[in-house]
């Protein structure tokens, strides 16, 4: 027996070369061939081991040792065989690789040829495929119509055959009847009164089969000719004639023959027409009677079809009567005028009809429907729950059987819906909208119909090619067949229907009528010199808005409405992303009714949402015109003829309404899009004047050329008729394009375009001052704001460029300065400590102003040499001081800056330069060391010095120290509830951007208090104090410009403060950019003068067009009138007044000379000691609460004007008492305690008071022991209260800082005459037209 092991399967001796062996998972060893065979046969180990799993290649392992002894000869042979096999395989692989490379090259050529062929034919294929889909869709529609006609024909043939058979079977049964079918119909037409009384006719109907009779009615109706008469005699004239061919007024069958308002006389002229109408009525009544005889589904469908045809014929006769009436009774002159549109609004009043109409409906049906709607819409009740409640209501109606008639009970059961969908449809919650298909590329819209095009056919100009973008996509998932659905869809809400529903709501007409009365009373007072305007409706612009004949638009009779609407549009992120760089944007177009009070104007239920343009991108300035055209189409009838509404809440006979879009209120981008202006960066960036962008730093308003309507309309029409290339040139040259708003005859873009305060002030100027001018980052150190955050100077110019610019400035050569390099001019301004604007023109202007102030120069001969031998020998000397040496030396605070007493130094060369100092400034210094950043190169003009951009210190004015101090003060500040609190982490990146209200509170309250505390006691000539005064000028101007009242004093003070802020800003921050927001801020004074207080628009990100939720607010709103100026919230508990409170109240009334008897007995008799405690009351739109309910809303100011005292509101109560001449008088009174005043020595040191109302004042933290009783009208406003510790003030005691929050202040502190910006007057006359053109080149 051999000692060499064998395989357990084939029993062959294994060999490491000839027959190698391998080990499997279970540990058994077999030869490689057997293991491979077992794996392919998917068999387990053949030795029946525990592992019964089938073998796999990954389960085999090669043995690491030889189990068979081999000789050296066997090893050499094995190595030789392996080498030979590897060489053979390598040769085979090389030949295969060469062959594959040839094949790949050949295939590459073929693929290239095929791709080129496909690229040539792919457009044709796509176009053909689109045409094929269109043709297939048309074929499918035609086949569907054909199939319907075939089925109808089959039905008619079957009915005809059945009728013939029935006629033969029943011919003998009908032989005894006196009147035949045709004779009976003629008899009924001539004698309609005998329809139900004739026995012969009754026997005829009883003997005739209903199917046969229905068929006979159909045939007679088809065979009967309808002749339109030439003349008719009407019984009377309707009060409100219906316009012919008006789709909103169709004939409604009521079962009454010859009904009003177009009833005819019984005369020979009307005989034929009345006979036709009587025949139609008889057939309709007979068909309705036949429907009750059979319950067969097919028969009922036939009856409905015949009834529909008969009703259509009656509608045709009704339309003929309307047309003939207008031909006979309306003169041609009246016919030429546009007809008066009429909107039926009775359906909008049924949800409020609690008292009139059917009492059972009001007491049973209406509350039940409201209950179901509240469950579904407010509490999110399921559909099943709502339908169970409706079923229970139906069971309650069944309990009325026997109490009401069966017909009445059937009517109630029919009007009570069975499903939630029916309940929603009772009150017509869904708005009336029109649907449009939107192009995803050009934003063009087409009405959504079954025949909507597949590709966009819009052309930007008549000569432009069509857009050809896909409008629809194919959907197979919904119906299982190929269905085209729009890619984007736009819903436009009908303005007529929205306004009709708006006027049918309770309290709306009360507010509109009261505003109309108030406006008439104040119209005479508006002519005074310094009248206070409380709203835009009282402004000069709206009061002077008139018809073409000169009559005031707002003056109208009581039964007519004249409404002003402000158009606004803004983009929002529908995904509620708070990041500044949002990627998804939808654009909303909405209008505010300016006739409403300010507190009601921006409520979602009072805002007309025209539509939301789908995202994810914003439409351009021309693309948004598609959607503005829809709004203009809705508003044109309101201006031309007006729209009549049949009924409103207060006017059962209806009212005429006229509207106008005045003004357009949006941010800078929105105003330009809506009113047809160019972009903010265009040459003529301003929408109110022709100031070019290169002169944006010009703050001298007298030099601004104003825009006018005629010029605007001229260039807009030129743009409308031009091609694409010409349009771009016109927008670039004039900044004007066409907008559909110009179709409104009264629209004046220069007057009616207003940038609202929210965008221009809060998110514009305030945010720019904090972030871009000062810098705002809690992670960096504090600085003095001399250089903008994150800025770097330009590269240093060459030696030759600096020398030429220096010589041009010395000689005052404007042409040479214009030809100089911008970087050379920038460094000249830097060394002269002049303003360094962003434009070359601004740099030249600053240098010329400095040159003019120096007087004539004595020319130095040494300056005329362009290059000396010493300069050539020292090529490494820079022309002037390096960047590091030119920076002013500033001693920054080590920890907390000036608030801790650190010395803040600011060294600036403020001494005027003489000729010698000017020469020494610019001559190269021989001892100057070469900075390591300088790279020296050789140019045609000598030495050229190039440097890298120097890194300025990364500091910010609002750095870690200031922002930490602001955050600490914010935690100790108490503001009322109506103020949106600013975030404590403002300045941190993780917080994100701030909203407009947060910027207002952050800058106007928290930042102002903290900076006055830190910088207010610095020397007046220090930079910190100047920065504080400049910032407070901005805050004061913003507060005045955004007040809810305005006057001539307000406007003058605003213009003074804003001009002073801008002029001082240019001198304090030499490199701060002046942007269009600063220019528009000066135009705000014109807005306040012409438009009154600017109505603010807040972020209306999600406003559904009269959705179910917002409409439900109208159902649940009480209709009782509110108090005129003070609204109260009363508790159920009555509390008695103490004796001291009664005495204080008696003293108050005695001081008003109401109580004539001072005896205590009389006072006790007149004053009731019992009162009702109130949780709150509302005064001038602001809610006040006692300290026990809300400490934030209990901080009030008492007094008048600038003289005020802070107090704490402790109690609000409603008191009733008897007054002579009246039964009972009910009034609200307040119990207050004043804050204790500080000692006079501390008051004299209060540095907050020197900054006026924006600075506030310091008061004690304790209240006085004695309280007072006041009326609510004595309250001025709330105040913001900040607790300051001893370390903050240095007074040795904690204090309260009181900052008034009065937005209705009528008295304004004047700060003196406005500062004049002479930056553009000093250089006047030094530039001619050629130089002006050259200076625009950068």
Indicate the low-confidence ranges by residue numbers. Answer: 176-207, 331-337, 858-948, 1097-1129, 1154-1165, 1320-1338
As a whole number of angstroms, the C-alpha radius of gyration is 45 Å
In helices, the fraction of residues equals: 40-55%
Biggest β-sheet, characterized?
11 strands, antiparallel
Oligomer: single chain
Content of β-strand: 5-15%
Question: Termini separation (Å)?
Answer: 106 Å
Shape: extended
Could you report the average pLDDT, rounded to the nearest whole number? 77
Number of helices: 40
- Based on secondary structure, the structural category is alpha+beta
Question: What's the number of extended β-strand segments?
Answer: 30
Task: Write up this protein.
Strands 20, 21, 22, 23, 24, 25, 26, 27, 28, 29 and 30 form an eleven-stranded antiparallel beta sheet that branches. Strands 4, 10, 11, 12, 13, 14 and 15 form a seven-stranded mixed beta sheet that branches. Strands 2-1-3 form a three-stranded antiparallel beta sheet. The chain has 1338 residues and is of the alpha+beta class. A hairpin with a 5-residue loop joins strand 1 (21-23) and strand 2 (29-31). The protein is built from 40 helices and 30 strands. 41% of the residues lie in helices and 13% in strands. The model is unreliable at 176-207, 331-337, 858-948, 1097-1129, 1154-1165 and 1320-1338 (pLDDT under 50). Helix 3 packs across helix 6, helix 5 (210-223) runs antiparallel to helix 6 and helix 32 (1023-1041) runs antiparallel to helix 33. Residues 1319-1338 have a biased composition (Acidic residues). GO terms for molecular function: zinc ion binding.
